[in-house]
Amino acid sequence: MSCEYRHILLAVDQLHADSEIAFRAKRLAAQNSPCKLSLLHVLDDVAMPDTPYGSRVLLDEESDNVLLERQKGEFTALAHALRIPKQDSWLVWGLPSDEIILTAKRLQVDLIVLGSHGRHGLSLLLGATASRVMHQAECDVLAVRLQNN
Length: 149
Fold this sequence. Notes:
There is one protein chain. The chain is an alpha/beta fold. It has a single domain, classed as Rossmann fold. Helices cover 34% and strands 21% of the residues. Strand 1, helix 1 (19-31) and strand 2 form a beta-alpha-beta unit. Helix 3 (96-107) runs parallel beside helix 4. The longest helix has 17 residues, at 66-82. It starts with 6 loop residues before the first strand and ends with a strand.
């Protein structure tokens, strides 16, 4: 059986709440074996002065930013639970849709898996980030509808 997808990028939004989508991406990768699974979380709600968009956050360096350290801990825990190695785990600072699209292109992924939190208007179908990624990505995109909490 030939592999439809060779490299899947899992883009998570809420690290503590996106486990359903994460394990769905893991199953997709297993079903398309051999398939690489990479993990991306874009920090857009953590103040990082003097840091340009697109900067990768180093997981091994500690900072005084409590929110950043919490995000790094949750990200590392999710990567560990999914058995995604550090070199395939990307924690970056920026605008989520832009960073997802750029990372997917740079890593030459075949599929982006992300959650959709859309609630109203056009966003009801996808959500702003998911909609933009679907329209601009150069690969397939799977937007998983997440339950509103």
